[in-house]
Structure formats: C-alpha cells, structure tokens
Amino acid sequence: xxxxxxxxxxxxxxxxxxxxxxxxxxxxxxxxxxxxxxxxxxxxxxxxxxxxxxxxxxxxxxxxxxxxxxxxxxxxxxxxxxxxxxxxxxxxxxxxxxxxxxxxxxxxxxxxxxxxxxxxxxxxxxxxxxxxxxxxxxxxxxxxxxxxxxx
Length: 151
Description:
The chain has helices at about 10-60, 65-145. The chain is mainly α and about 150 residues long.
C-alpha cells in the first residue's frame, strides 16, 4: 500500500503558522497589559504620597506658595493617573481581542488536526483490511492445493 498523504497538509501548515502568530500577538498584548497595570500602580503610589504630603502640610504652619506648588503637582498627577488608567483599559481590551483571535486560530488548527486523525484512522483501517484480504487469499490458496500423498 502506498504511503499516507494528507491532502490538507498545506492548510494545516498555514493554520499552524497563523496560530503561532496569534499566540505571539496575545503574549505581546498580555505583556503590554501587565506593564500598563504596573504603571497605574506606580501612578497611584505617587498620588497617595502627594495626598499624604498635602494633608500633612495642613497640620503644620500653612505656606501658600508650597501649598500652591503641591496642589499643582497633585492635579498633574491626577491627570497622569487618569491617562494611565485609560491606557491600561485600552491594553486590557486589546489583550482580550488578541486572546479571542488566538482561541479562534487554535480552534481552526484543531479542526485540521482532527480531520488528519480521522484520515489516518481510515487509512490504517484500509491497510489492515487489505492485509487481512491478502492473508485470507494466501490461506485460501494453500487450502486448495491437494496434498501430494493424497489418493
């Protein structure tokens, strides 16, 4: 019997390549999301430090020039925190989209793998059937021959 050849092999190779690219895009998006979460945490730590400094300054003697500078810094940090949070949300949305793309690419690859497994199974069954037919034919030919010492 001739060697097994899967006719959809080029499709499987292409889908495996697309699945790999989708996995890499998902990993990259996940990295960007984690990075943006860390940036947001750092911005929030800076905000808490500025808040603590602002409120601690009120317990002591009030100096308007320092308070104005601190308040300007606080407002700037508030804006930076909001912008960092927006970037984090955008990174999370992109990560979710890349995750969906990866799952879809993986599903398509699995379809081709299942088709190949079915084709291999059918090929094996056919090969085993042909082999059994050869054995049966061989056994049948041996039985038909008369024994040389039979009368």
